[in-house]
């Protein structure tokens, strides 16, 4: 009986190993340079999750579960660190590097998951990337985390050899996005980041490349004009307004829409995205675990603010999930107390798809940010209103459920159809048609309070 069971298991893994991998459409930049598209020019709204330690912490069974949940929830991009430590090992004890040398990835001959002598760190990454493709997920690979380069002082020559290895291994994978950098300012080890970016571009010209910067900075500060950078990223998390006091950083506080404004007006035009806002369940400012933690309402606010300001998508994060915290861990970062397999279903994660649903409900590529839709005061901090529109529609987001005065003349026609979109439930209220006036006032459901967020949806009639 046991022999038969083992045979079944081996056959099952053999099926995994030899089943053809689903091919996804390689992503492209839209004609207006603001968004992503598939190869057949269909809109691609980036809805990402920071599964940073997926490759190193999860075995095949758990990785499969994680990818399955995120795919069913509507996510389409997973951001992952390839090498998070010079001593990196995965769930099977396989090392990423030989002698902690970035230029010497540790590989074996063969890639049979049933043979420990053949199945190495990189084979495990291959397996996860392929399983992600089968579930319609793109993988944004961070080649090497910034702190690793800083600690080991890797040279541009080592970086070039490593980037060539990555490009050769993954250029044929259809679901790859390159996310250079890794929580570090581009002013540190600039030659290394430029070398990685330029090498990836030369060796793998078909996949998009960006740069993941340190907190409260943006890739455009250092790399906007580099040929290898296809789109910009910024990291708006994880401080509150009161905590954002660093003299060397932009003092935008929680106003992540301000980063979008900066990138949106740069030339040449490139898409931009908040690749790391404050995470659900993580303490304000990260390090003091006695402070309050960011909630689902907060991650919604970051999402709608940045997208309505002109971003091409949004990346969600969860404290327990990003580090794949599990019961066997000896400790956790940033006061994580929950486990990834529970927190993957937190309210904020489930609500993210509603943002994607709304943005794809109207003509996508014509959308522009337009604060002129708002009549009167736009508000400050949590009372700030964000407006975006297409040729015959407009969306205005309020985080607090405050009244909204609209310059309706921005829309064509003599009548306006309006309804309310609920970011917590992904539902539209019953639509009402009104005669169009130069200024129209709308009062969201409920009393004004943080987290009573709504989107006013206007369609020209």
Automatic annotation (TrEMBL):
Gene3D superfamilies: Glycosidases (3.20.20.80). Coiled coil: none annotated. Pfam families: Apiosidase (PF13204), Collagen_bind_2 (PF12904). InterPro entries: Apiosidase-like_cat_dom (IPR025277), Collagen-bd_put (IPR024749), GH (IPR017853). Residues 368-459 form the Putative collagen-binding domain. Residues 30-366 form the Apiosidase-like catalytic domain. Signal peptide: none annotated. SUPFAM superfamilies: (Trans)glycosidases. This is DUF4038 domain-containing protein.
């Amino acid at each position: 009986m046991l022999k038969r069971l083992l045979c079944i298991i081996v056959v099952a893994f053999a099926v995994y190993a030899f089943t053809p991998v689903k091919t996804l459409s390689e992503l492209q930049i839209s004609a207006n340079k603001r968004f992503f598209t598939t190869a057949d020019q269909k809109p691609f709204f980036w809805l990402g999750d920071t599964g940073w330690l997926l490759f190193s912490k999860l075995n095949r069974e758990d990785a499969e579960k994680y990818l399955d949940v995120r795919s069913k929830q509507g996510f389409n991009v997973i951001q992952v660190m390839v090498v998070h430590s010079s001593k990196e090992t995965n769930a099977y004890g396989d090392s990423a590097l030989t002698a902690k040398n970035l230029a010497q990835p540790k590989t074996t001959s063969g890639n049979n998951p049933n043979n420990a002598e053949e199945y190495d760190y990189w084979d495990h990454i291959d397996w996860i990337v392929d399983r992600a493709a089968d579930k319609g997920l793109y993988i944004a690979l961070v080649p090497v985390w910034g702190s690793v380069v800083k600690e080991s002082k890797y040279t541009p020559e080592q970086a070039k050899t490593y980037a060539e290895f990555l490009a050769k291994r993954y250029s044929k994978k259809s679901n790859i996005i390159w996310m250079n950098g890794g929580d570090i300012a581009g002013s540190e080890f600039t030659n290394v980041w430029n070398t990685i970016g330029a090498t990836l571009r030369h060796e793998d010209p078909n996949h998009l490349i960006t740069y993941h910067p340190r907190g409260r900075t943006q890739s455009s500060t250092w790399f906007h004009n580099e040929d290898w950078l296809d789109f910009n990223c910024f990291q708006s998390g994880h401080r509150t307004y009161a905590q954002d006091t660093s003299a060397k950083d932009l003092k935008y506080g929680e106003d992540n829409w301000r980063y979008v404004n900066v990138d949106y007006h740069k030339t040449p035009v490139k898409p931009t995205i908040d690749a790391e806002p404050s995470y659900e369940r993580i303490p304000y400012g990260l390090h003091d675990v006695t402070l309050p933690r960011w909630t689902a309402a907060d991650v919604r606010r970051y999402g709608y603010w940045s997208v309505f300001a002109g971003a091409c998508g949004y990346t969600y994060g969860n404290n327990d999930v990003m580090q794949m915290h599990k019961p066997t861990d000896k400790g956790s970062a940033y006061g994580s107390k929950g486990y990834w397999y529970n927190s993957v279903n937190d309210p904020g994660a489930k609500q993210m798809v509603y943002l994607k649903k709304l943005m794809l409900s109207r003509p996508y590529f014509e959308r522009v940010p337009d604060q002129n839709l708002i009549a009167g005061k736009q508000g400050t901090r949590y009372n700030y209103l964000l407006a975006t529109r297409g040729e015959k529609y407009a969306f205005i987001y309020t985080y607090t459920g405050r009244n909204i005065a609209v310059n309706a003349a921005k829309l064509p026609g003599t009548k306006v159809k309006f309804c309310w979109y609920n970011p917590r439930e992904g539902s539209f209220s019953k639509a009402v048609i009104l005669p169009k006036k130069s200024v129209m006032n709308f009062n969201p459901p409920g009393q004004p309070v943080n987290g009573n967020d709504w989107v006013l949806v206007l369609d020209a009639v």
